[in-house]
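ARCHIVE CARD
SHELF: 3
SLOT: left
DATA:
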Amino acid sequence: MPIDLEKLQSDADRLVAAALKAGADKCDVVVSNGYSSGISVREGKVENTGRSEGDGFSLRVFAGKRVATVATNQPADLQMLAERAVAMARVSPEDPYQDLADPDQLARSWPDLDLVDPLEPDPASFRETALEAEAAGLAVDGVMKSMGASAGAYNTGFVLAASNGFSGNFARTGHSVSASFVAGEGEAMERDYDFSSAVHLADLRPPAEVGRTAGERTARRVNPRKVSSGAFPVLLDRRLSGGLLGAMLGAINGSSIARKTSFLRDRMGRQIASAAITVTDDPLRMRGLGSRPFDGEGLACEKMVLVDGGVLQAWLLDGATARELGLESNARASRGGSGTAPSSTNAWIAPGERTIAETAREIGTGFYCTETIGHGINMVTGDYSKGASGYWIENGEIAYPVAEITIAGNLKDMFLALTPLSDLEFRGAVNAPSLLIDTMAIGGK
């Protein structure tokens, strides 16, 4: 059923009034509501079904420079919740940077970003979608068995109201399908996957395509070899390159800059990536999985170029980190149960011109990485080391699968050695084409 945004807005406005009545100097409230449902199948049988519903109330109150946030699923008494929050704020330590946005900064209108699919999802169709994806993967030669396929949808509503005069809301829907398979036997078993997610069902990739792609990826990974250690070009598949962009976004997040925990903390206005790299963040992208018409503090959102020709142009800032750094917020506040924090919205690296095949021919010998293992990134120093698997490039061709190797380097050097390929697709909130890194250390046999 559609989210009742009018009721959520009324609840938020009443909680603001309750907080001010309880003695708060300022306050803001986030009220959310949503539901999700889905199904997973395995070997042609339903393995699991689920549906969840939830409400969320997050109240942030200010007593002078002291601030406290309380969150609950469903308050039985709004006034009691407000009084508890004010009492907590009065005994909290002062925070000179937390505050509400000035009224003249607030969004007064915002665009319709087409974030709600008008077609209500039919839970009965999830089973057929998941089964179709699984059947397509199992039909691929070499695939031995399914690790499962799933399909689902969600619908959420978000309301922000504050004592500075802001009051706004929006809703979002989403659909997804995924599949994973196994090929090979015994210790030689390999697995891989594919997925698709979209705001509108019409934009979701066909389930048979998702399943077939997952199966083909799995079958290609059978009988991997080990390679000798050395320094080689590394080509990151686009499924991984978004993670590399995510590391860059984390390093230019205002919270990391203010805490001095980023290896890019002193690089504003300087070259942090190759001249081929341009990073854009656009909260107003139509039907974007990270789109939002206003940020978590009620500021109007705008498209920004974060990195232009490799040169760092901006940090990701909310109000608190901007004040701490002596800057102005650029409307990148996200709001959770514990308050606000900066985040990107729809971020991507602009594509280049070469395909994977063209790049393989150019480098001659190297590693095409399709999976990494572990969380080996030190955001303070930029050191990077992960387990990896994928395919060896030999004589300009993708020759054979490889596994049980490591790739290592430093993100400062890796960013400066990036070349984007032509295969950018928007499959999430952080997207990048496949990326060539000129040289990385590869640990093998």
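SLOT: right
DATA:
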Amino acid sequence: MSVNIKSVQSKVDLDEFIKLPYRLHRGNPTWVPPLMSEVRDALNRDKNPFYEHASIEMFLAYQDGKVVGRIAAIVDQNYINVRKDDVGLFGFFDCINDQNTASTLFARAEHSLKDRSMKLMLGPTNPSMNDEIGVLIDAFDIPPAVKMVWNPAYYPALYEQAGFGKAMDVCAWTMDEVEVSDKLKRLGYMILKRTNVKFRHPDMKNFDKEIKIFREIYNSAWSDNWGFVPWTEAEFNHVAKSLKQIIDPEVVLLAEIEGKPVGFSMALPDFNMALKHINGKLFPLGLPKLLWYSRKIDRLRIVILGVIKEYRGRGIDTAMYYETFRIGTGKGYHSCEMSWILENNKQMNRACEMMGAHKYKTYRLYERKIG
């Protein structure tokens, strides 16, 4: 069947682009519909500060007049400047189980990136490397944690049969029953005593000041990671203020040694446990449901955990895990996901394994040469 590709130009086109996965995955009990307002924000070229240094083109695939796929081609000038490579990104890929449709979408995204002088396409990133990334390649029957992606089991084959190869895998670890074992208690206490590290929670009354400290640590601690792109001040503020609505400050930690910030971790209540009940819409009935079901959240996702370079290798990361689990279990959080972690980050993966977590999901970033 022939496939027609249309560039997203109008508000009607954008609505079709945003709503496709809600139609495509409707009825699948594993999929958790994200808030439509957040998807719109991720694509808003006027209000999202990511587009101060990036450009995006969006495309829809049609069969017999019906939308059956979508993709975005993204050029992030910050990524290019930092990585010193002409890599174009792509994201927001969704498609029916049809190779011809998928390959046609990938080809159209490639053409868009080639027109902007890119030599390689990498993704999916929604829209950047600091947002939701990757294609789930296993554990398709387990719902995603908050701010993580989910896709049907046929997606990896669509990429691979279109000529994409693996660029990097990122891992999700889980502790299904968080237990602060005697061993972890002893280890945590020993690290705290040996390093003289102190933990504190963010001062929510001085949130703007705190997020500046967090951004400085993040851009330092993650600078050596594969694919890293530093947050701009505007981007970090934008994301932090959106997360402020769901943060539990008691499970967010700033690590300090002699008053100097050296690391931080941010755990979020897994709001996907509540979002799955509202189909992406807060109004008119979604907000009351969200508030009701959010009271029953008993799972955390540790989204960010890192230590600046000169203080690594001292066990501070393990101590932050310990402190998060200690506080979290006391507040009724009984399970935890640690994600995402690069497959080549041996230190963090080893720390998760040592604490009794097990790796239960893998997300893959794919790449393909252009032209």
